[in-house]
């Protein structure tokens, strides 16, 4: 039986009927692969994004960190939504409470 290269998801042949058990195994395999990618990304970006209006000098910045330098402040809320602010015509930021 053929499998995909990375996740080893089983491929159905053209003359095979789809079997629910194999189909579900494939979904479990995909879900597991996505979870691994998510965990890796979270580990890489954890505490690496800093938003500040007073960034440290370049020599003092943490290697691999991404800094957003706040240059202008606007009140949060567009059209009654107090958790969204507009950054540009095509980008917004959602406020998330910890």
| Tally of distinct domains | 2
Gyration radius from CA atoms, angstroms? 22 Å
Q: Strand fraction band?
A: 15-25%
Shape: elongated
Mean pLDDT score, rounded?
A: 78
The share of residues in helices is 25-40%
Biggest sheet details: 2 strands, parallel
- Helix segment tally: 1
What class would the helix/strand composition place it in?
alpha+beta
Number of strands: 4
Termini separation: 47 Å
Helix/strand order, N-terminal first? HEEEE
**Could you name the ranges where pLDDT drops below 50 across 5 or more consecutive residues?**
none
> Strand order, biggest sheet?
1-2
List the helices and strands and how they pair.
Layout lengths: L19 H26 L3 E4 L13 E4 L14 E5 L2 E4 L4
Parallel strand pairs: 1-2
Antiparallel strand pairs: 3-4
List keywords for this structure.
98 residues, alpha+beta, two-stranded antiparallel sheet, 1 helix, 4 strands, elongated
Walkthrough of the structure:
The protein has one helix at residues 20-45, and strands spanning 49-52, 66-69, 84-88, 91-94. The chain has 98 residues and is α+β, with helices and mostly antiparallel strands. The chain folds into 2 domains: 1-46, no CATH class; 48-94, no CATH class. The strands form 2 sheets. Strands 1-2 form a two-stranded parallel ribbon. Strands 3-4 form a two-stranded antiparallel sheet. A hairpin with a 2-residue loop joins β3 and β4 (91-94). It starts with 19 loop residues before the first helix and ends with a strand. The relative contact order is 0.08. The model has no long low-confidence stretch (mean pLDDT 78). Residues 71-98 are annotated as: Disordered.
């Amino acid at each position: 039986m053929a499998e995909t290269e990375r996740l080893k998801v089983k491929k159905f042949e053209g003359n095979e009927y789809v079997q629910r058990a194999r189909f579900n195994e494939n979904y479990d395999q995909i879900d597991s692969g996505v979870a691994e990618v998510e965990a890796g990304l979270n580990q890489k970006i954890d505490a690496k994004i800093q938003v500040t209006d007073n960034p440290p000098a370049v020599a003092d910045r943490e290697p691999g960190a991404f800094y957003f330098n706040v240059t202008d402040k606007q009140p949060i809320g567009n059209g009654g939504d107090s958790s969204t602010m507009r950054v540009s015509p095509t980008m917004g930021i959602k406020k998330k409470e910890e």
